[in-house]
Amino acid sequence: MDSLSRREVLTSLGAGAGVAAITSVISNDTNAQQIIDSTDDNRLFPTTPIKAGAAVDEPPFAVRVFNKAGYGPAAGDIAAFNALAGNDDARLAAWANQQLNPTTSDPAVSSRLSGLTLPGASYDTINKSDTALWTQHVRADDFNVRNRPREQSQRLMMLRAAYSQWQLRELLADFWHNHFNIDIELNNETRGYFPAWDRDVREHMFGNFLDMLRNTTRNAAMLYYLDNAFNTWPNPNENYAREVLELHTLGAIENFFGAVDPETEVGNNIMGQRAGYTEIDVFQFARALTGWGVADGRQGDMLDNGTFLFRADRHYDEHAQEPIKVMDITINSNGGTNDVEQILTYLAQHYGTARFIAMKLCRRLVGDNVSEALIGSTADEFWNRRLDSNQLREVYRHILLSQEFKDTWGDKARRPTETLLRVWRAVGIDYTPKLSEDEGENISSSLLGRLEQAGHRPFEMDPPTGYPDFKAFWQGTGTLVFTWRAITYLLTRNNTVDIGINLVAQSNQLVPTVAQRTPTNVVSAWLQKTHGFLPETQTINRVTLFMADIADVGINEQLENSMNTSDTNNGSEYNRVLRATVGLIVMLPVGQQR
Amino acid sequence: MSTNTTKFNQQRRNFLRNSAIASGAIGIGALPCGVSFAMASDSINKNIFVYIFLRGGPDWLSIIAPKNGHPDRGFYENLRSNGVLVPDANLLPLTGGWGINDRGAAFKDLFDNGDLAVIRATGLPFVNRSHFEAERFIELGTPGERFTTDGWLARHFQSAINLPGSMQVPLMTAESNVSFSLLGEPSVLALGSPGSFDLEGGGSNFEEELEVALGEVYAQGNSDVEVAGAQAIESLQIVEQVFAGDYVPDNGAVYPDDDIGDELLNIARLIKANVGLRLAQADKGGWDTHGNQGNLTGQFGGRVQDIAEAVKALLLDLDVPTGEGDSWKDRTVVMLQGEFGRRVFDNADQGTDHGSGADILIAGGPVNGGQLYGNFLGLDPASLFQNADVKTSTDFRNVFAEVMVRHLGNAELGTILPGFNIDMELDPQLAIEVGGYNPLGFINGVDLPINTGPQDVISRISFE
Are A20 and B222 spatial neighbours (Cβ–Cβ below 8 Å)? Predict the structure, then answer.
């Protein structure tokens, strides 16, 4: 060991920890102090955004952009971003413009899909027609056949997030999948029909919200997930009507008035619309949704192909003359689908929906404590463009180009799947998740199992709320341990048959000269590669000491003195040292934030 | 309340942090004593609270229903015209003409044994039939407050003055994520899968060294993620020891072979390992039965049996000496609660939609069991809420408060349940007669002077 002994480093760490603990008594007050005074209804959100610098460590601008608007930078991303223009603002504008206009071309993903030739390994269900998914999978006798679209959809989510050049699109697809949540493993319809659902969610993701909403209301997976396939007069099933109001459009946070009289106790919003909905509106909407279902052969004379089917004889107007009244809409039914269409149009173009969607998008892209000002201006953008075919694209652009997006960092905890995929991209893991693998161990199944233990397996949030999107929920011990477990699992499988990332070869590209391969240099190179910057000295020292310790050399001593650093075999000592060192680096606290 | 409470939160957080740094290698059974705030041992509350949330909102009228001869039986059968009811023959008698679904026979055993109490017609102080909102309002303990960021159990833990300054695993959830009731307390052990609560790799990949280094890196700072990370590493070592080897429950207890059975078994192991566990939380989902409810032979009946047998097994398993003159069961109270009750009438899909007034089950050694508490106003149309729900007559916070005060010895209700006081506005549509703490007596414990205002931190610190 030279320059700094282990004991000296530990001593300085101890002193540092003491100082940190004392100062944080003051600095943490603002984080914990978020109980809002109920008597002050205008203060729905904290008004001061968390500025960059309040978090553990603050990466450079480009790194922040890729972490907040995607799954983190992969090799080459930062350089490409910085080459787009002469300053950060112009670079972000140019990058956002590319990402907001994705094309169907995505070679990094499509080449991996087409490269899968082993029997059972290919993603053979994801491009099947809606009807084929229904008849061949939802209605299959064999559970594995019914379940195959689920298995492939979950792997496709990881594959796209890891390799797609359209990082913003993938992040937003995840957002909308959580917004219009379906628990994929609930029933045969959700398992077997999911690729059709994914297409419906994505079709209008950069278009108009009403079109997107209409898609979701006619998809069999949703109609089965929230029970509307069974909603019939005269005893309506209210589940779907409630969730469309509460979760998909107006939201329960600001616009739900509860069990009160809508005519006398609700009033109007600033746009002159009824300010929100009540229990009575939920029931009225459920009435309108009676008969709104799926061609599922429930009555012997009907098709069983999973397409949307309106059953006029199960619709309320066959039995009642009383008009439907949902908020400002009064409908004298003509017995067709137009009852629901009118209500959906009204809801999609309601200012309360604009506020709710704006709040959720801002929280996703900026931070948990995003300012009321940005939410308000985003809601106005949503509202002003409510008739535009590119409404959502411009809403996203509004957020991405806001000063608050540019200035903030670390006000979100990365959720387990996001942490795993950040590491996947940062380390440059070369692995196509597949159902069937040669080696007897299914790596993608193991990864999904660990994500499930961490509470974040893709598309498997049971309640219709989707996975929560705020820090405190994801900062428990179990979440962290099982996320780390997924990461360490992935790294211990490096350089095997299925995961083609050779840490030794890659490390030696970063530090080519044998004599330069010291813990100090190697750690510094990997920190830069996987985080895009160097964190505080104390952290660097601790990681360097760790590597020196397990490699049994001094922190500035050649690793070659202790082992052959050119041995790229999976079982080589240097590979084992690098697995652990890179593991520690990618699991640092800064990697848990975005 | 925020500023003062926050400082104290920080103080307890530092207790935990100091203990993590000072203790190093941790042995089971000995609390690390690295802090100077030692308290007299007789002032320390050792009671345990297990909070089971029945996510989705169970149809309580299919768990506890009027038997033949009860004045509500006729209304009940009329309201459940699509068949979502429990026939008299399937109702095991409790008391007062009420019976319990025979799939929950284990609850009947506990009730007859004096280990189970039922609190009728509880709920929010206003009607809200949204899962999303009702769950948050209840688990965060702040009905009507939409932006509370910590749960009632977290606030209890952070304001309790009768807990040791340093504890190994004071809080756990049997779920993968932090539950709402514990939200805001990053030291919670989230133990969804204790059998694989470990890093990958084994010795050849320097797993032990990696754990130590990670623990130190996360111990450098005091942000939430760093506290959680440091606690996670410490927990790895404790869990590894507690959950090593096979486990044979005491007294021949048999946990049902399902999620809630496994979760309560894990909680029992952690309790008996004597690592300072005080609060444990578990979920049992699947109660949102809008269609094909299945009261007797279907999904609903199965779930009732699961929770009843799991709770019975837990209490039997805990009925062994602590080594301090009492049993673990003597220290343990279990509460089962969902976010709301369901409509009194069923729908055409043989299911039930969201309602309001709901029962709460309380089980354990310190429970004055074998009784129904609270006010069930009846199922005749005039007694219902808007002709649709069981009318709420007990604010759920009153139940929480009794557990806090009489069982956990924490009377800081202004901090734990802000806004819950005698001056609160009562919804005239409901049947809640008294605001504020009004013990029903289901817990056998002593009442304390209640503080409905902010916690007095200055005197707290000088006390210590």
Answer: yes
Q: In this complex, do B192 and A236 lie within 8 Å of one another by their Cβ atoms?
A: no
pLDDT 10s digits, A82-114: 999 999 999 999 999 999 999 999 999 999 998
Contacts of B166 (CB under 8 A, 6+ apart): B15, B16, B18, B19, B31, B32, B33, B34, B35
Measured distance CA(A47)–CA(A35) in Å, rounded = 13
**Rounded (10°) CA dihedral A26, A30, A33, A34:** -170
Encoded amino acid at B8, one letter: F
Q: What is the pTM of this model?
A: 0.80
Give, for A257, the enclosing helix (H) or strand (E): strand A256-258
> What distance in Å separates the CA atoms of residue B130 and residue B139, rounded to the nearest whole number?
14
Confidence of residue B197 (pLDDT cuts 50, 70, 90): confident
ipTM field? 0.82
Q: Report whether pLDDT(A39) > 50.
A: no
> Are B398 and B438 spatial neighbours (Cβ–Cβ below 8 Å)?
yes
* Separation between Cα atoms, residue A204 and residue A176, nearest integer Å: 11
CA distances from A171 to A198, B59, B460 (A): 14, 38, 47
Tens-digit pLDDT profile for residues A201-236: 999 999 999 999 999 999 999 999 999 998 988 778
Contact status of B192 with chain A (Cβ, < 8 Å): yes
pLDDT recorded at residue B216:
92
Give the separation between CA A195 and CA A594, rounded to whole angstroms.
Answer: 29
Q: Which of residues 226-255 of A touch B (CB under 8 A)?
A: 227, 230-232, 234-239, 242, 246-247, 252-254
Gap between the terminal Cα atoms of chain A:
36
A287-322 residue pLDDT tens: 999 999 999 998 766 789 999 999 988 888 655 668
CA distance linking residue B455 with residue B155, whole number of Å: 11
Q: SS3 for B223?
A: coil
Measured between beta carbons, the chain A residues lying within 8 angstroms of B232 are 477-478, 480-481, 484
E-strand spans in A260-377? 277-278, 292-296, 304-310, 324-326, 329-331
Does residue A56 carry a pLDDT above 80?
Answer: no
Put simply, the answer to whether B192 touches A478 (Cβ < 8 Å) is yes
